[in-house]
């Protein structure tokens, strides 16, 4: 199941602690649970950028980033926060 991410929740240090899409029953989803979902092939998460999907992937077992694009940036960092 693909889940669109529209917002993030961050801690005081600026680290993403949850992915969000207001109005969706799965939202907010803690980062640890998102990692389990992705690694277990239960759900995928993506950010829609210029009508293209940038999928969220796990790095170093504990971090989340989006797939590379032309700007080579993590699109999660550019989303509004809750």
What do you see in this structure?
The chain has 82 residues and is mostly beta strands. The chain has one domain. The protein is 11% helix and 39% strand. The protein contains one helix and seven strands; from the N terminus they run ββββαβββ. The strands form two sheets. Strands 1-5-6-7 form a four-stranded mixed β-sheet. Strands 2-3-4 form a three-stranded antiparallel β-sheet. A hairpin with a 3-residue loop joins strand 6 and strand 7. The radius of gyration is 12 Å and the shape is globular.
Please describe the topology of this protein.
Layout: E1 2-4, E2 7-10, E3 16-20, E4 29-30, H1 31-39, E5 44-49, E6 52-59, E7 63-66
Parallel strand pairs: 1-5
Antiparallel strand pairs: 2-3, 3-4, 5-6, 6-7
Low-confidence region ranges? none
Gap from first CA to last CA: 23 Å
Counting helices, strands and paired strands, the structural category is mainly beta
Kindly state the number of beta strands.
Answer: 7
Largest sheet: 4 strands, mixed
Share in β-strands = 35-45%
Radius of gyration: 12 Å
Instruction: Give me the side-by-side strand order of the main sheet.
Output: 1-5-6-7
What is the domain tally? 1
- What best-fitting shape do the alpha-carbon axes yield? globular
Order of helices and strands: EEEEHEEE
The chain-level mean pLDDT equals 91
Number of helices: 1
Portion in helices: 10-25%
Which key features would you list for this structure?
mainly beta; three-stranded antiparallel sheet; 1 helix
